[in-house]
Amino acid sequence: MTHLALTRSYLILAVGAALSSVRPDTTALARSRADSTAHRRGAPYIRKAEQRGRIAVWIVDGTYVRTNIDEEFTNYGQHYGFDFIPANEFWIDREGKPDE
49 and which of 18, 21, 37, 57 could share a cystine (Cβ 3.0–4.6 Å)? Predict the structure, then answer.
């Protein structure tokens, strides 16, 4: 292999390595999309905490739920316990105080 071919190969490897180390912040992008989805859904959704397979875990306004939907809602719930929660969603009440 000639010197030019070796230099070109090295350059391609170096550029590829540099590009692979520059990754977009997909976590921030995903959170931004989740917050946007919560905004479109309206109350009681606050933000999407995470996705576990088919189950979407949502932080919700528990006070709103207890006042307007079902006073028996506690700190969390799922479709099997509360028929107003959509299937494939798990709701967690946001904390009232830090570290609650």
Answer: 57
The strand pair at 89-93 and 55-60 is best described as parallel
Look-up of token digits 């700190």: 75
Nearest-Å Rg of the Cα atoms of the chain is 23
- Which residues, other chains included, contact 35 with Cβ-Cβ below 8 Å and sequence gap of 6+? 47, 48
SS3 assignment, position 48: strand
Order of all β-strands in the sheet with 55-60: 45-52, 55-60, 89-93, 76-78
Task: Tell me the per-residue pLDDT of 13-53, one tens digit each, with 9 for 90 and over.
Answer: 444 444 444 444 555 555 566 566 777 888 899 999 999 99
- 91: Cα within 13 Å, side-chain hemisphere: 27
